[in-house]
C-alpha cells in the first residue's frame, strides 16, 4: 500500500513567507533523498518562473537529490519495474483528469511505497481524492476522517456502474436514486463529502466529475428523470453491508 501525503501550494508558500520551513516538513516526511519528481508538463517545467521548478528547488536544493520525469513516462517506467519501488515520489501540481487518473492508477497498483502531491488549489479534485484515501495533509499534520461507511457502500454501487458511465442510463439512475435516498434520510447533498466516499470506493476521476455535476444540478433544483435501480429498502441494505465490513 502506498503511503500518501500532500500540501496545498498556498499553505506551502503562504504569500512567499514559509517555503523554506514547509519544505523542511515535506523533506522530513519524504525521508532520505534522492526523490523522484513527476511533472505533468515538461515544457512548463522548463519555462521561466515555473511553479513546478520553484517547488523542486526548495525541496531538493542539491540537484543530485532529485530526478525529474514526465508523469506518463514515470508511469511507463513503473509498469516495467513490475514491483513496488522503494523511493519517495513527488507529483507536481496535477490538475488535468488524465494526469490525476495516471496518479490514481499508480496508487491502485501500489507501484510506489511513498508518494507526496503538491496540490495547486484547495478546490482541485485531486485533493478530494487524496482526502478520500486518507492522505496526510502535512500543513495540518493530520488526515481527514474516513468517509461515512454507509455512503461508501453507496459509492461502491456507483463504481460498479462506471464502466458504462455515470452521466446517463443505469449509471446516472444509480447516482440520482441513491443521492435522493440519502438526502431524504438527512445526509447533506454535498459534493466534496460524496466524492471522498466515491474515491475511497475506487472511483475514477472522469466519473467523479460526472457525479459532481449531477449533485450541482440537484442542488439547483433539477429533477432528473431516471428509472428506479434499487428497492425502497436500499438504505437498510447498505447499512447492513457497512456493518458487515467493520
How would you characterize this protein structure?
The chain is α/β, with parallel strands linked by helices. It has two domains: 135 residues, Rossmann fold (3-Layer(aba) Sandwich), CATH 3.40.50; 97 residues, no CATH class. Helices cover 52% and strands 14% of the residues. The chain has twelve helices and six strands. The protein has a six-stranded parallel β-sheet with strand order 3-2-4-5-1-6, with helices on both faces. The protein is elongated, with a radius of gyration of 20 Å. It starts with a strand and ends with a helix.
What is shown here, in short?
This protein is α/β, with parallel strands linked by helices and 246 residues long.
Major β-sheet profile: 6 strands, parallel
- Count of helical regions: 12
Largest sheet, order of strands side by side? 3-2-4-5-1-6
Secondary structure category: alpha/beta
Shape: elongated
What fraction of residues sit in β-strands? 5-15%
Report the end-to-end length measured between terminal Cα atoms: 20 Å
List the topology elements:
Blueprint: E1 3-8, H1 9-13, H2 19-30, E2 35-39, H3 42-46, H4 51-59, E3 66-70, H5 71-81, E4 85-92, H6 97-109, E5 112-119, H7 125-132, E6 136-137, H8 149-159, H9 169-184, H10 191-200, H11 205-219, H12 234-245
Parallel strand pairs: 1-5, 1-6, 2-3, 2-4, 4-5
Fill in the keyword field for this structure.
alpha/beta; 6 strands; Rossmann fold; 12 helices; 2 domains; 246 residues
